[in-house]
Amino acid sequence: MKLTGSDIFIECLRKEKVEVLFGYPGGVVIPIFDKLYDAKDIRFVLTRHEQGAAHAADGYARATGKTGVCLATSGPGATNLVTGIATAYMDSIPMVAFTGQVPMSLIGTDAFQEADITGITRPITKHNFLISDTSKMVDIISEAFYIASTGRPGPVLVDLPKDVSTGMIDFEWPEKPSIPKGYKVVKYADPSVIKNAADAIKASKKPYIYTGGGIIISGAGKELVTFAERINAPVTTTLMGLGGFPGSHPLWVGMPGMHGTYTANMAFTDCDLVIAIGARFDDRVTGKIEGFAPNAKIIHIDTDPAAIAKNVKVDIAVVGDAKAILEQLLEVVKKRDRNGWNDYIDEMKTSHPVTYDKKSGTIKPQYVVEQIYEATKGDAIITTEVGQNQMWASLFYTYDKPRRFISSGGLGTMGYGFPAAIGAQMGKPDAIVFDIAGDGSIQMNIQEMATAVEQKLPVNIAILNNKFLGMVRQWQELFYGKRYSSTNIELQPDFVKLAEAYGAHGIRVDKPENVRSAIEEAISIKGPVILDFIVDREENVWPMVAPGAALSEVMEGLF
Amino acid sequence: MRHIISVIVENKFGVLARVSGLFSSRGYNIDSLTVGETNDPEVSRMTIVVKGDDSILDQVMKQLNKLVDVIEVVDLPREQSVRRELCLIKVNCNSGTRTEILEIANVFRAKTIHIGHTSLIIQITGTEEKINGFINLMEPFKILEVARTGVAAMQRESKEQ
Ligand SMILES: Cc1ncc(C[n+]2csc(CCOP(=O)(O)OP(=O)(O)O)c2C)c(N)n1
């Protein structure tokens, strides 16, 4: 059968069961868009900026567990994807990004709209490809999806020169999908390593389980609960791991790190064993490394050998898939009874709750998040922007299930939450989706409102509007003598009118008593809604471990 | 510590940039890097000489292993591996110094591959130490140019045999 590269491209998407593709057209990808025009089984979502397409593909992937796919033209289209690709890379999100490229014969000539996108994205992709020949398309695309979604997932970029997508070849499916030679994924660990880990757990009087996004990626939630209950160890989950262990479980102590709970941070300081599963000891989690878990042995379970012992010294390294390793551990680990350690932790949880000033008479951002929690019965998909909004969304909403909290953890990308909400809603049409946003961040990808309206997506944006770049202002208040350099953003659009200008709904809320009803109204509206909550301007995020301080120096607000 | 790392890679577009990028993005300076096909034309071997902090190197090796195009990474132990380098040296000469240079070259089993009126090109192979020694001895005659290939190395005995 004679087919063009673009036909083959579409067939490859079908073979990978791609149901939705986010992107933006341009010169060198017109042949592909011409084929997409007829491919009614693949939903194409036209975003209004390529960054929006990348984040939407990422949000779709996080909400569904499937691989997100985006497509952009060469040059500026490709470079506009970069922040989205880097965001997905830092958080190990399966994504395949396709970019158009100038014809092979023009590569390297500074041709119109040429950018060396494989060079640019080399350090922020798990792998990338330039397809130099139409005959290589099938193998490369199937390898791209395989690499993106297996092991420690990550974004893979595939660059498609125009002559490759227009080239015509005799086409036949290969008998077996191509698998790259040097690519290896380890699932189970050697029994001797498992035994070492089990021995350390047995010997521990004060074990502490520290989990991250790896639990969610590998779908190890059930095994984790069984394991934690078996050894009666308190559990902390990082920002990336929220929902990987039920937030309402009595063993859960909250999130650790810079804005983690008092208990989660003190538990690191006091425990004698850290069992890290699918978490990478990020500096925002560990605080000053010298003061981190000073009395503990560390077991580090991770699918990525390069993540182990990267930031801290590890006593027992276990390479493998989180779920598989937990299964192995559950075969050998014996029950551990509660002891004084558990009482100590429970007492800390009661005496140091995460809270805020509830008597101010003004709208507190934390209150808004709590009300969203109650109105959605804790079952919404929450995406976040970056800054204080992100921290409040993680501290004041309880996540009992995985894939409900979607946030740019590693890169901390402002402007992520809204397009990610669009992607999440595409993947989970029946879910209630809220982007908990700051007034600064939301302006970074607000153009996607047109996408949300066009696709008729009932996404809700809850702006915690403090008219500041709040998180930076908080640092300036605490560490720079309140010198608010370039963080006052009082000059802002009327967000209600802005929503209306796009054909969406806007609701402004400036009284605490209207918060709940506004949230419920937003949920009942079929299309996208902006909720503009006018909150206390100088509210701070507590608890906080100052940059460079040890976790034991965690500061709490005074209420 | 100085290390010689052997990296077996798929002979694909961009692989050299990927490998060298891992070193440069960590501020790790590569002393030498050689690359060439193996007996299988789809597979190349890179030999990389680096020095620096062992824990960073350990991290770089793990990252190298993670690259999709990398098939194998080995930190070659000094005692159990052979290392060779080739070097071309163009050195100034005149009728007075020519014989002396050729005699030294002879002792080092180096080959003279070009003799001109005012210069000679000598080819020498061996360990880096040997080549460094030879270059030192040529210094007084005025070296015009040096081209070194960088070290190629392999383990004396293969593991699975
Ligand atoms: C793209 C990008 N630029 C800059 C930053 C640095 N930054 C982190 S938080 C923050 C302030 C965010 O302000 P806003 O969105 O209003 O949220 P708030 O903290 O007030 O909730 C800034 C500027 C960032 N994370 N991302």
Short key terms for the protein model shown above:
heterodimer, A: about 550 residues, Rossmann fold, six-stranded parallel β-sheet, B: Alpha-Beta Plaits, 4 helices, about 40% strand
What does this structure look like?
Chain A is an alpha/beta fold. In chain A, about 35% of the residues lie in helices and about 15% in strands. Chain A has 22 helices and 19 strands. In chain A, strands 3-2-4-5-7-6 form a 6-stranded parallel beta sheet, sandwiched between helices. A 6-stranded parallel beta sheet of chain A has the order 15-14-16-17-19-18, sandwiched between helices. A 5-stranded parallel beta sheet of chain A has the order 10-9-11-12-13, sandwiched between helices. The longest helix of chain A has 15 residues, at about 50-65. Chain A is globular, with a radius of gyration of 24 Å. With about 160 residues, chain B is α+β, with helices and mostly antiparallel strands. In chain B, about 25% of the residues lie in helices and about 40% in strands. Chain B contains 4 helices and 9 strands; from the N terminus they run βαββαββαββαββ. In chain B, a hairpin with a 3-residue loop joins strand 6 (about 110-115) and strand 7 (about 120-125). The longest helix of chain B is centred in the middle third of the chain and has 13 residues, at about 55-65. The radius of gyration of chain B is 19 Å and the shape is elongated. At the A-B interface, strand 6 of A face helix 1, helix 2 and strand 4 of B. Bound molecules: thiamine diphosphate. The site of thiamine diphosphate has 20 residues of chain A, from helix 17 and helix 20. Thiamine diphosphate (TPP) binds next to helix 17 and helix 20 of chain A.
